Amino acid sequence: MTWIYVLFCVLFCGSTTGFLLDTITGHLPHQVCYGDLGCFSNGIPFLSTHRPLSVVPASPDTIGTRFLLYTRATPTITSEEQLDPKNDLSISRSHFDGQLATKIIVHGFTHDGHKMWVQNMTRELLVLDAFNVIVVDWHAGAVLPYEQATANTRVVGAQLAQLINTLIARAGTSAGKFHIIGHSLGAHIAGYAGERITHLGRISGLDPASPYFEDTDIKVRLDPSDADFVDVMHTDAGGVKNIGFGATHPLGHVDFYPNGGERQPGCAADAVDKLGATSWAALSTFFNVYAAEEALACSHERSYYYFTESINSQCPFTAWKCATLGEFDQGHCVKCTDDSCARMGYHADPSKGLRGNFYLNTESTDSFCQYTYQVNISSLNNFDGILYMTLEGTNATIGPTALMKNNLVHLGKDTLALRYHSRVNVGSPTHLTLRYEKITTPFISSSYPDDWHLLGVTLWQADESRKYSFCNTYHAEIDNHNSTTFSVRGVTC
Questions:
Q1: Is the dihedral of CA 123, 124, 126, 127 positive or negative?
Q2: Residue finishing a domain among 360, 381, 411
Q3: Are both 142 and 249 inside the same structural domain?
Q4: Which residues are annotated as a binding site for Ca(2+)?
Q5: In this model, does residue 432 exceed pLDDT 70?
Q6: So which residues are the catalytic ones?
Q7: According to its UniProt record, which residues of this chain constitute the active site (predicted)?
Q8: Of the candidates 249, 219, 214, which has an alpha carbon nearest to the alpha carbon of residue 232?
Q9: pLDDT (tens digit, 9 = 90+) per residue, 131-182?
């Protein structure tokens, strides 16, 4: 599939009379040098089977990178200040404060530093604390052809490193105070910057771009050596066949895979769905390119929505370490030890020494964060049907809701582990109500009893790592079409 893109570029990526010759010669191994930013070659490792068309980066003047500073004193576009690593006065006369932590936001392909999501993230960061927030605007270099934009990320990364090192030298700050948040190509820009800075504090990669980066050498892409802590969010890892724009493989110390890391709830699922949604969005909005982009890249863009929400949300975006997505879906991993759960997004904690792949589920619309509950039930006999739950707590009540999508055959000798997600935090659970709806299929229905005999029920409040048991569950009976309510042990028994 990579060669389809190669052919497309050879045929369509140029615009001059001699574009075919320019395209061929432009991909021959050579290098360019841009003063104190250094030299950049398009040879190995930047030329490989995973990047068959490799070009050198455009010049800094062509890319036109700007560093836009926002603080609580200058929080909006109208009050932004521009920092120039080659102009000390642009730093000394700005509101940059070396005593504060610095958050740096880097956009990706076709975006710019004034996109709404960038403004929203900046605002949420400044609500949280008095940070220096620097937005890297490289929009002139983030345009078609894509292969040129991927190459340009190397120069932007070098420029960003130059700015950070200048701030360390001139403004009394330190590398550990910097946190770069990069989306798509911006995540790899963060990596290129980090490899030029000793002990950069943190990089958060928001669905790092896959095309031309997946399976490449670590010098080409974001990797854990680029900062003291690298956390990565994967939201659109479907690969070429599903028009997935994000990386599949782990790239950080901690890699988060919300909803499995591929298709996000509320977004198109595969290539056919994505192209259909994109066409409809464009047509229904009179060929609005932004609406089309939102549909095609819905899962890819969901990563910055998750991160932005996580900054000030009371809901923790708890994720659990698991060997595979299948293990997580079966409810085998939703328990927290020192390093087996983490908070996805802004509050991922570097001090916990987290490593590995973490999974969680989200809602399809904002607020995206969910609280997770798991009901564990042991019983004497079998059943075939659907179980509904209502959970009451000190803050709220959730349900009744089905604990399985379809009828489930359950054997009495096994423990039933059923996970439930909700936007609502019930607080401390007080009562649990279960309703059993037996399947009514002829012949099969008579094979299972009308009443279900329990041995025990426990509730695991996963985000709080708390286990609750219930009164009078031993040999309790739930009749078909009826509900039975149990009180939390210690509340009334």
A1: positive
A2: 360
A3: yes
A4: 221, 223, 226
A5: yes
A6: 184, 207, 300
A7: 184 (nucleophile), 207 (charge relay system), 300 (charge relay system)
A8: 249
A9: 999 999 999 999 999 999 999 999 999 999 999 999 999 999 999 999 999 9
